[in-house]
Structures are given as C-alpha cells and as structure tokens.
Amino acid sequence: MTSGTEPANPADTSAGEQTTGSGGTKGQLTVTDTPEKSRYIAYLDGTPVGLAAYRLADGVIEYTHTIVDEEFEGRGIATDMIHSAMADARERNLKVVAGCSFVEHFLAENPQYSDL
Predict the structure, then answer these.
(1) Which domain holds residue 71?
(2) CATH code of the domain covering residue 21
(3) Helix (H/G/I), strand (E/B), else coil: 20
(4) Which of 66, 79, 110, 115 to pair with 23, CA 20 to 30 A apart?
(5) Where does the record place the region Disordered (predicted)?
(6) Is residue 33 part of a domain?
C-alpha cells in the first residue's frame, strides 16, 4: 500500500463479513470487515489491494482513511469497497461519519446513503 500499511492476510479474515463488487474491476473483488483491526479490506482475486480504516463507538462508524494500492487505482475498487461498507453500516443500523475526503465525496455522489 502506498501508506506502508499492510492489510491482513486473507486467511486471517475468515470471521469477517464478506460482500463482492463489480464496478469496473477485472477479477473477483471481495470486501471483508476485519473488526479486530478496525478496517474493511478489499481483495482482488484473493490479493489485498485496498483498505478503509474506521473507528466504531456508540453506534457511530467514522471512516478515517481509504487507500488502494497504486497499481490498482482507477478501477473502482475504493468505490466498491465503500459501497460494501455502507451496506454493512445500514444493516447494523450505524450512523456514518465521513472522516476522510474519499468517503465525504462518495457520500455526496451517492444520495442513497443520506439516511446513514
């Protein structure tokens, strides 16, 4: 990752909730919540390629940082990852706070999440 933060090994995330996306990526994109590390991790064909870090407290989830490996930028991975994170927040009845510019922009462009 460009920040030097390495996502967990895919084998370490079996307890996480998984969803998949398709927005312009080639291959199978899987997004896994890894609560013990407070992050969603995006895997493309099993390889970690991005993450969305968060803080969770008192029914509020704040997304603090979103990053995708430079090699995989521009393929819609971050967008698919945040779509999955928003679906999870909705399912868990969490209030969403955009603590990073990517999530702030995402929410402005996706009014279907305005109730969060």
Answers:
(1) 10-111
(2) 3.40.630.30
(3) strand
(4) 115
(5) 1-33
(6) yes
Q: Considering only CA atoms, which of 72, 80, 75 is closest in space to residue 19? A: 80
- Average pLDDT, 10 consecutive residues per value, the chain (116 residues): 38 36 66 96 96 97 96 94 96 96 96 93
Residue at 2 is within a domain: no
Q: Produce one character per residue of 54-89: b if its CB has 16 or more CB atoms within 10 Å, e if not.
A: beeeeeebbbbbbbbbeebeebbbbbbbbbbbbebb
Cβ contact 30:56 at 8 Å: no
Query: pTM, whole model, 2 decimals?
Result: 0.76
> Looking at the 3D structure of the chain, how many domains does it have?
1
Q: Which two tokens stand for residue 16?
A: 């996480």
Compute the half-sphere exposure of residue 85: CA atoms within 13 Å on the CB side of its CA: 35
Cβ count near 47 (within 10 Å)? 12
Q: Extract the tokens encoding 24.
A: 């312009």
